[in-house]
Amino acid sequence: MPPEERGDREALRGRLWRDGYLWLRGLLEPAVSNGFREYYFGRTGVADLEGRPREVGRAELREVLFGEVVPGPEYDAFCRQAALRDWFGWFFGAETFLHRRKIIRHTAPGENGIGTATQAHYDLVYLRGGTDQVLSAWIPLGDCPVERGGLTYLEGSHHRVLREEAEGRLKRPAASITADLPALAEEYDARWLVADYAAGDVVIHTARTVHAALDNVDDRVRLSTDIRYQPVDLPVDQRWQSHWHDRDGL
């Protein structure tokens, strides 16, 4: 986006409505994102500090990830850091609420396909009990070139989702989830948008923007986190206000 728009709240709101996402390059200090990446790899053992994959037992990983990292103070501090909290407060023009259910994803090279990669979906599928004004933030933890499997957005998809919901044509929106990204692009007559992300970048998207994760064809582990902020005075979907665990699915 043009640099002059970064501090223009109305311009950013207009861009979010138009595009369905905001790519905020360098919103965070790269050292903060890279620092949490090093902490995560050090505690879980899934990669060395350069991101090269390592073997680790599933039971051991689950114990550390869900018993220590996800509910831990380091992750909470990262998600509540001033650069994020203050940006959302400024953008909403209101006090904010951070959903407790926050997800960390690591994807090793070649670890792709259904059950591993994030399939095409939009977040309101899972958040029907709260406001549709919730915004998701996808944050690459470390540099994430295209080949490492970052997030991809289906261009303009939020407009179609909103229209079809209003027309009652998406009564079962979960049925729209698919792993066939080319077919979905053809159905929507739209492009999948991809990019090389850098440590410190944050991508904000609406609850109706269709997105997915690319396959990791790099030689390093891709690490990212998904968090959600909303104005504190709007309804919250209470089903998702506990710490994330893999037994909960997406």
Shape: globular
Q: What's the average pLDDT?
A: 89
Tally of strands: 9
Enumerate the spans where pLDDT stays under 50 for 5 or more consecutive residues: none
Kindly estimate the percentage of residues that lie in beta strands according to DSSP. 15-25%
Q: What class would the helix/strand composition place it in? A: alpha+beta
Using only CA atoms, what is the Rg? 17 Å
Helix content: 25-40%
Biggest beta sheet attributes: 6 strands, antiparallel
Task: Explain the layout of strands and helices.
Elements (H helix, E strand, L loop, with lengths): L8 H11 L1 E4 L5 H15 L13 H12 L3 H7 L2 H11 L3 E3 L4 E5 L27 E6 L10 E4 L2 H10 L14 H8 L3 E2 L8 E4 L5 E3 L8 E10 L19
Antiparallel strand pairs: 1-7, 2-9, 3-9, 4-7, 4-9, 5-6, 5-8
Which structural traits does this protein have?
250 residues; alpha+beta; six-stranded antiparallel β-sheet; 9 strands
